[in-house]
């Protein structure tokens, strides 16, 4: 399911009743984009959030935030998308921002083999500092530069299979698979939230059943 421009909405206040008469749900999700310097993380975010491509490279310094509001399955979702610098001097800062993240994109550059090799470093960082259930997606960027390709699609797929995560090759310049990769992230997070809600409902039900059994046993023992 791909989000079209007319599906973008201005968020209503929490709890507002929609035109259909149903109460709109609201969620705020923290999504972080990590990877080596010059892999095109900022360009991917700019393409998704603002619909344009950055022609001139400007390295990120520290952490930058972009926001987007979408409608998905009758839910208003506030996406806080954090763009991170890929240099070592900002690593301690980036590690702090992993806290509370619900989604992570790990980006490499298909024209730079080292950026693929360094995925082990980024994945270890995520394992060490991000929530254990954070949704992860691997992105191979700059697939428009086919003549300069150093990492095959198959190599990217193998790495993704190794880590057990989805994989997309994208081009922020040609707007290829950028929306699809974000929609995959949205659908996976939404599914995880739904499963957690169902699990909580069952836990509440189990507690009620247990309490009912205790009350029943206590009543049967009572000789009043």
From TrEMBL:
Belongs to the small GTPase superfamily. Rab family. SMART domains: RAB (SM00175), RAN (SM00176), RAS (SM00173), RHO (SM00174). Gene3D superfamilies: P-loop containing nucleotide triphosphate hydrolases. Signal peptide: none annotated. This is Uncharacterized protein. NCBIfam families: small_GTP. The keyword GTP-binding applies. PROSITE patterns: RAB (PS51419), RAS (PS51421), RHO (PS51420). GO terms for molecular function: GTP binding; GTPase activity. Keywords: GTP-binding, Lipoprotein, Nucleotide-binding. It comes from the Eukaryota.
């Amino acid at each position: 399911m791909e989000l079209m421009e007319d599906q973008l909405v201005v968020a209503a206040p929490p709890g507002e009743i929609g035109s259909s008469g149903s109460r709109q749900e609201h969620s705020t999700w923290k999504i972080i984009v990590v990877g080596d310097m010059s892999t095109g993380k900022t360009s991917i975010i700019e393409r998704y959030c603002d619909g344009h491509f950055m022609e001139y490279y400007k390295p990120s310094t520290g952490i930058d935030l972009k926001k987007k509001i979408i409608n998905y399955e009758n839910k208003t979702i506030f996406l806080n998308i954090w763009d991170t610098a890929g240099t070592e001097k900002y690593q301690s800062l980036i590690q702090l921002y992993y806290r509370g993240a619900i989604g992570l994109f790990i980006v490499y550059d298909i024209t730079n083999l080292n950026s693929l090799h360094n995925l082990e470093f980024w994945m270890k960082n995520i394992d060490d500092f991000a929530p254990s259930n954070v949704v992860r997606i691997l992105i191979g960027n700059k697939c428009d530069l086919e003549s300069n390709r150093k990492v095959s699609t198959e190599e990217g797929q193998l790495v993704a299979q190794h880590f057990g995560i989805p994989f997309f090759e994208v081009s922020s310049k040609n707007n290829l698979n950028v929306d699809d990769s974000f929609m995959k992230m949205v659908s996976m997070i939404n599914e995880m939230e739904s499963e957690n809600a169902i699990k909580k409902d069952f836990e509440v039900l189990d507690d009620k059943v247990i309490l009912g059994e205790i009350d029943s046993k206590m009543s049967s023992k009572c000789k009043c």
